[in-house]
Specification:
The structure holds three protein chains of three kinds. Chain A has six helices and two strands; from the N terminus they run ααααββαα. By secondary structure, chain A is mainly alpha-helical. Chain A has a two-stranded antiparallel ribbon. About 20% of the residues of chain A have low confidence. By secondary structure, chain B is an all-alpha fold. In chain B, α2 runs antiparallel to α15, α3 packs across α14 and α6 runs antiparallel to α7. Chain B is globular and about 70 Å long. The model of chain B has no long low-confidence stretch (mean pLDDT about 90). In chain C, the strands form five sheets. A four-stranded mixed beta sheet of chain C has the order 10-2-12-11. Chain C has a two-stranded parallel sheet with strand order 1-8. The radius of gyration of chain C is 22 Å and the shape is globular. Helix content of chain C is about 25%, strand content about 15%. The N terminus of chain C is likely disordered. Chain C is of the alpha+beta class. The chains are: A mainly alpha, B mainly alpha, C alpha+beta. Chains B and C meet through α2, α6 and α7 of B and α2, α6 and β7 of C.
């Protein structure tokens, strides 16, 4: 178990770069700070497990420098596709499968998921908590991220977008410009597995003005 | 009751005349009637029956208005040589110019009225009842100056004719004040009309300092040219005397004005072609066509040819003093300036549109009929005015004489 | 016309004081060289004909400019309008006349990096603001440019691909920019259009004489003319309206985007902001330093169209990476 944690940490420091999905035994270099990192990772896991229920509470006011007049509203979670059973049905502390640390082409039972997020840079366990699949990876303070607060995870890599989203510049808002607004979470618009927007059909173009010839028939 | 003598005398003169007079008036009445019928169709259906769109939102009506304001201004500007330089031959004939100005002003007001979407709301323009947006809106200024000019052109000849009818000498000092006011006023009506277009930042074709000078230069061509033609007709059919000298002098003025007009056109060509910015596009549309659309190109080149030919005719003394070529020159100038300043100025201002699109404009039959109707009304007013004015001027129609045919 | 007269009681009749002097008694008969006489008589002569065709009541005909109306006059006008709309559409309309909210100046920003040219905003606006379907009026024009330039003469609004966004192109939607130094309001000969204190440039449709000078003056194609009677399907008409905004208009007057005045003065976003699927449109109060729009202007590189014309639009464009 501990070696898994170490590998996880080291993957984040020096990600494997191969598109074959083979195991990376010979390539990962465990730095000398390894043992310290291992201890920290263990600590994080322990704290994360304990703090999980606490971290899942909604209504925390985010820390914004300067002003803060806006309240973050928890919004109803986008319904998961019906084909997905609750994660705990298969993953959990009690029963689980062998954790696959490296990218696999076949997603086993999750065949409905098309993973196209950052090409080779992102893989399932870059977001999903390996041990507790009802959560996403923790923040640096160890708190596991709930699906309802998935934006905190997105913000780890997409920091500028996260900043803009917090200020209302990125993403759609509806409601009142001077009062209550309805925000959209990242996953309301972006499918986290395949976040790029699909092209859509545009609405019809405007009618062209009557040409002189048409007018002349008047 | 002196007025009834005048009224009955005038009325009698209006309804009697040579056969050509009857034919002319009947023709004008028919065309005016057709115009009124066409306008009523426009009222019923809305402005959609015109060729205007939200891209080219002004068309034939405003083009005619622009041209005619120039004619009105120039008609009175003959006063400058007549009174300031006491040039005898022109002094007597100024009154016809003022009658022309009155008729043309009526045409201008009619053209603006038929162009309005909601003529039923025209009372909104009356200060006090509605709101007249001075000093901000140039259109409001134009309404003020045009109405003031109409007043001046009714009052000055009205006063002089009244005195002539009663065989009394007019008080020169009294009327001189009004005449002197009317000179800058005549320049101002056309300058204000130019400023209507000039101040619009959205239309680079108009937003150039050269616009007002060009307006005035082309006005000084077309107005006097019409006057020359009118005088020739008047002196042919009435006892009104117009010396050849006066006509040739007017032709000289036209020559200078046309030179200025062509020179300013050349300046515009240079600036747009050499700088080669997007501001060149309206000119390209007009003279060569843009994106395959070139409805106005043959028209503007014809106008250019007319102007140049007329300039040459007026420049050379031999052709200037030959009535055949003089008349040809006048006709060419009127047509050429009408094209250049009427449609050749208004339409390209809207092409390309402010966001880059190129949509053309072609007037519909209703627009053409209404335009012809208004011209007929203007010419009718002018004819009727002259039918009363000329006899007063020649002394045939005074208080003492009985009304004769 | 008859139906709306039924709804008017005796108290609704315009009191004597607001009938213009010149209309009392016979329109003809004044002597003297009144310079306005000719134009006025021509107008008066056409009065009856115009009114018959324009199908409005006497009271509506003589109502004043919105800015000069008394509260009672406005209420009467609203009642007339509601009766007219009920007769025409069979629905109860709300014709509000809310004034500006204190301390607001509306600003708008559009993210060009995000716009995909789907035109949902165009049609949301059409529905919200009761725009005529035939002849077609659309306040928002989505310009498609080629990558590499912002040349208006090479742009088009008529693109019709299978899918958007298209490769090699980008999109800039343009509507009325609600300029702080508008070239359109200064040219109106009757002050039928003006800037409200909250920055919205509005038109009083009952005062506009249809001269279209403001349309010649606008550099952004923000203004549109009803060349014919506007056609709005009864089942799609929006009954929540504002006097200066989306109430159903009449023929031969100018209309334009009003930042959905009927919505924003109640605190809501304009329809185009709400509908945009990618959240490219941002709106708020420029005078509030904490608003989205203020933060955006401070922190994003914003620009405005045709800045050199000094129209000072309140409509900004930016690129959020």
């Amino acid at each position: 178990m501990w070696i898994d944690a170490v590998r996880l940490t080291c993957d984040r420091i020096a990600p494997p770069h191969t598109d074959k999905g083979e195991s990376m035994k010979g390539i990962i270099h465990i730095p000398r700070v390894g043992p310290v990192l291992v201890l920290l990772a263990l600590l994080a896991l322990v704290v994360g497990c304990l703090a999980g229920p606490v971290g899942a509470q909604s209504g925390d006011k985010p820390q914004e420098p300067g002003k803060e007049k806006r309240v973050e509203f928890p919004v109803p979670l986008k319904p998961l596709p019906k084909t997905i059973t609750p994660c705990r049905a298969c993953h959990g502390p009690e029963k689980d499968f062998k954790i696959l640390w490296t990218r696999q082409e076949a997603l086993r039972v999750h065949t409905n998921v098309q993973l196209k997020h950052g090409e080779q840079r992102v893989w399932c366990l870059d977001c999903h908590h390996p041990k507790d699949r009802n959560y996403l990876l923790p923040l640096s303070d160890g708190k596991k991220i709930t699906f309802a607060r998935s934006y905190e995870l997105c913000g780890k890599c997409h920091g500028t977008i996260y900043r803009d989203w917090r200020r209302g510049i990125h993403g759609k808002r509806t409601g009142n410009w001077n009062g209550e607004k309805k925000y959209h979470l990242c996953i309301h618009c972006h499918d986290p597995h395949s976040p790029k927007f699909k092209a859509l059909a545009p609405m019809p173009p405007p009618r062209k003005p009557r040409t002189p010839r048409e007018i002349a028939k008047h | 009751m002196p007025r009834s003598g005048f009224v009955s005398g005038a009325l009698k003169r209006l309804v009697t005349g040579p056969p050509v007079y009857y034919t002319w008036v009947a023709l004008l009445l028919i065309v005016a009637g057709i115009g009124i019928v066409a306008y009523s169709k426009q009222i019923q259906a809305g402005l959609v029956v015109t060729g205007m769109t939200s891209y080219v939102s002004w068309g034939l009506y405003i083009g005619n208005f622009t041209f005619l304001v120039g004619v009105a201004a120039a008609a009175v500007l003959l006063i400058i040589p007549a009174y300031l330089y006491d040039f005898g031959p022109i002094k007597e004939v100024v009154i016809v110019g003022e009658a022309l100005a009155v008729s043309v002003l009526i045409m201008c007001m009619l053209f603006v009225t038929v162009d309005l979407g909601r003529p039923d709301r025209i009372w909104h323009l009356i200060p006090g009842l509605g709101i007249l947006n001075v000093p901000s809106s140039l259109l409001s200024w134009d309404i003020l100056v045009l109405n003031g000019y109409l007043f001046l052109n009714l009052f000055i000849p009205g006063y002089l004719l009244y005195k002539a009818y009663h065989m009394k000498e007019p008080s020169t000092s009294f009327i001189l004040v009004f005449i002197l006011i009317s000179i800058p006023w005549a320049i101002s009506i056309h300058t204000v009309t130019a400023f209507i277009y000039n101040g619009l930042v959205a239309r680079p074709f108009w937003n150039a300092s050269i616009l007002a000078p060009r307006f005035l230069a082309s006005a000084f061509c077309s107005g006097p040219a019409l006057i020359i033609l009118v005088y020739e007709i008047v002196r042919k059919y009435t006892k009104f005397e117009v010396t050849d000298e006066a006509l040739f002098k007017i032709a000289e003025f036209i020559c200078v004005a046309m030179f200025l007009n062509l020179f300013l056109l050349g300046c515009e060509f240079f600036k747009e072609l050499y700088s080669d910015t997007h501001h060149l596009s309206p000119m390209t549309y007009l003279y060569a066509g843009l994106q395959g659309k070139d409805a106005l190109t043959p028209w503007i080149w014809i106008a250019f040819a007319f102007n140049v030919i007329a300039f040459v005719i007026f420049l050379i003394p031999a052709t200037r003093k030959n009535f055949a070529t003089l008349n040809l020159g006048c006709v060419l100038i009127v047509l050429g300036i009408w094209i250049e300043k009427g449609i050749g100025l208004i339409i390209p201002g809207f092409i390309p549109a402010t966001l880059g699109e190129v949509w053309e404009y072609v007037p519909t039959s209703i627009e053409i009929l209404v335009t012809l109707g208004i011209w007929a009304i203007g010419l009718l007013v002018f004819t009727l005015l002259l039918k009363v004015i000329i006899p007063i001027e020649t002394g045939e129609f005074t208080k003492g004489t009985r009304a004769e045919a | 016309m008859n139906e709306q007269k039924e709804n008017l009681s005796a108290e609704d009749r315009v009191p004597e004081s607001s009938v213009p002097e010149s209309e009392k008694g016979a329109p003809c008969g004044s002597e003297g060289l009144n310079p306005d006489r000719r134009a006025f008589l021509a107008g008066a002569a056409g009065l009856f004909g115009m009114m018959a065709v324009s199908s409005c009541s006497w009271q509506e005909f003589f109502q004043q400019n919105f800015q000069r109306m008394t509260k009672e006059e406005l209420e009467r006008s609203v009642e007339r309008l509601r009766a007219e709309y009920k007769a025409k559409y069979g629905k109860d309309f709300v014709v509000g006349a809310e004034g500006p909210i204190d301390g607001t100046l509306f600003g708008y920003a559009l993210d060009i990096q995000r716009c995909i040219g789907c035109r949902k905003c165009v049609y949301a606006c059409v529905e919200e603001n009761n725009l005529s379907r035939d002849p077609q009026i659309q306040y928002i024009r989505v310009l498609r440019f080629e990558d590499g330039n912002m040349d208006l003469e090479k742009s088009t609004i008529y693109y019709d691909p299978e899918e958007v966004p298209e490769d090699g192109h980008y999109y800039i939607p343009v509507q009325c920019q609600h300029c702080a130094n508008p070239p359109c309001t200064k040219v109106c000969p009757v002050q039928a259009t003006w800037t409200e204190p909250d920055g919205i440039v509005v038109v009083d449709y009952n005062w506009c004489i249809g001269c279209r000078y403001c349309m010649a003056a606008c550099p952004y194609m923000g203004r549109w003319f009803n060349w014919a009677d506007p056609v709005v399907p009864k089942d799609k008409v929006n009954t929540e309206t504002h006097y200066l905004g989306n109430r159903p208009r009449m023929r031969n007057v100018v209309e334009k985007c009003t930042f959905c005045i009927q919505r924003v003065r109640k605190g809501k976003y304009p329809a185009c902001v709400e509908i945009c699927p990618v959240g490219a449109r941002k709106f708020g109060n420029l005078l509030d330093p904490d608003s989205e729009i203020s933060w955006l202007i401070r922190n994003k590189r914003v620009f405005r169209l045709k800045e050199e014309l000094n129209t000072q639009p309140n409509f900004y464009y930016f690129f959020a990476t």
